[in-house]
Amino acid sequence: MARVMAIDYGKKRTGLAVTDPLQLIASGLTTVPTHELIPYLKKYFAAEEVEAIIIGEPKNLDGNATHATPLVEECVRILRKNFPQVPVKKVDERFTSKIAFQSMIDSGLKKKDRQNKGLVDEISATIILQEYLQNKI
């Protein structure tokens, strides 16, 4: 089987997470500067088989679009253009950053480490992927 990748897209940084080849476990992969996302993915996809891309869709509490929604829509368009063979699925990402931050506290990370926004983005991508895997079953 191929992996599934999750993207927590941001204007400056983008968090990435992937499953194992059996699609049982979601793990944080890395955080990349957003302007380097497509070159990074091209290199990664050349080395690993990816079955689908899951991207977090930002929404307000009421379910309406946020200021970041158009950025994600543009990213989806670029992903589909560059990787037409890989389906791109949008999933609700409400609360993932807050859950990621809380998981950092719960795991005992020091305050300095919790201020690493790249780590929050990577953990957010992992949470998006875990939720996708749970709902897929």
UniProtKB/TrEMBL annotation:
Domain YqgF/RNase H-like: 2-100
Keyword Hydrolase: yes
Domain of life, source organism: Bacteria
Nuclease found in the keyword field: yes
InterPro entries, alphabetized: RNaseH-like_sf, YqgF, YqgF/RNaseH-like_dom, YqgF/RNaseH-like_dom_sf
Keyword terms of this UniProt record: Cytoplasm, Hydrolase, Nuclease, Ribosome biogenesis
Pfam families in UniProt: RuvX (PF03652)
Enzyme class, UniProt record, top EC level: hydrolase
Main subcellular location of this protein, as a coarse class: cytoplasm
The enzyme's E.C. designation: 3.1.-.-
Subcellular location: Cytoplasm
The protein's role, per its UniProt record: Could be a nuclease involved in processing of the 5'-end of pre-16S rRNA.
Similarity comment: family membership: Belongs to the YqgF HJR family.
Protein name according to UniProt: Putative pre-16S rRNA nuclease
Protein species of origin: Chitinophaga qingshengii
Higher taxonomy: Bacteria, Pseudomonadati, Bacteroidota, Chitinophagia, Chitinophagales
